[in-house]
Amino acid sequence: QVQVLESGGGLVQAGGSLTLACAASESIFTIDSMAWWRQAPGKQRDWVATIGRDNAIYYADSVKGRFTISRDYARNTVNLQMSTLKPEDTAIYYCAATKGPDHSWGQGTQVTVSS
């Protein structure tokens, strides 16, 4: 099963930017899709963005135009560039990988946006 590890979280002021990285234990060429999800305190985990092996990309309406998901083949990571951050973006951000019938989650990285 693919293992994924998130990094890049931190504290940022509203309007600022942050880039998260998700490192995979297997080549991202072989992973069907990778996605970012987030979970704010006391709320359910929400989907943020997905990139497929064919590079099809999808975003939640709440982040469209502000977040960009991409693959870094040299580093074997899937990145989430976040800009124009808002306090409501504060959450633990999780990376998820789907390969065949298997679905893997990382442990998450905290993003805090101060107002």
What's this, in brief?
The chain is mainly β and 115 residues long. The protein is built from no helices and 11 strands.
Task: Name the structural class.
Answer: mainly beta
Give the amount of beta strand, in percent.
over 45%
Mean pLDDT over the residues: 97
Biggest sheet layout: 7 strands, mixed
- The first-to-last residue Cα distance is 39 Å
> What's the helix count?
0
- Structural shape: globular
- Unreliable parts: none
Number of E strands: 11
As a whole number of angstroms, the C-alpha radius of gyration is: 13 Å
- How much helix is in the residues? under 10%
Order of helices and strands: EEEEEEEEEEE
Folded structure, characterized:
Helices cover 0% and strands 56% of the residues. The radius of gyration is 13 Å and the shape is globular. It has strands at residues 4-7, 10-13, 18-24, 33-39, 45-52, 57-59, 67-72, 77-82, 91-99, 102-105, 109-114. It has no helices and eleven strands. The mean pLDDT is 97. By secondary structure, the protein is mainly β.
Any descriptors?
single chain; 115 residues; mainly beta; seven-stranded mixed β-sheet; four-stranded antiparallel β-sheet
Q: Could you give the topology of this structure?
A:
Layout: E1 4-7, E2 10-13, E3 18-24, E4 33-39, E5 45-52, E6 57-59, E7 67-72, E8 77-82, E9 91-99, E10 102-105, E11 109-114
Parallel strand pairs: 2-11
Antiparallel strand pairs: 1-3, 3-8, 4-5, 4-9, 5-6, 7-8, 9-10, 9-11
